[in-house]
Write a structure and sequence with these properties.
Number of helices: 5
Helix content: 40-55%
Structural class: mainly alpha
Distance between the termini: 11 Å
Strand content: under 5%
Order of helices and strands: HHHHH
Number of domains: 2
Length: 86
């Protein structure tokens, strides 16, 4: 987890960890360290694919394209590589 307050201060998150404290070990990532977060890499790939050299005639068209992209794109990122950096 990164240190965003909804990730560790949320009552739902706290309750979930309390209910699973025997099987989960929370690991907090350093602040401002996107290199540890696989989702940051996915966002960067998506931004490149969707925004560079593309034109959308309306915001609705952009939303449709983003929705289609994330439903169909396979990023082939190895989560293990990100987890082992911690």
């Amino acid at each position: 987890m990164d240190k965003a307050s909804p990730h560790y201060k949320s009552k739902k998150v706290q309750k979930y960890f309390d209910n699973h404290k025997n099987t989960l070990i929370p690991i907090y990532l350093p602040t401002a360290s996107p290199e540890f977060m696989v989702m940051e890499k996915a966002w960067n790939i998506a931004k490149r694919d969707l925004l560079f050299l593309n034109y959308y005639s309306s915001f609705a068209d952009l939303k449709i394209e983003i929705s289609w992209y994330f439903r169909t794109k396979r990023f082939n990122l190895n989560m293990r590589n990100y987890l082992l950096k911690c």
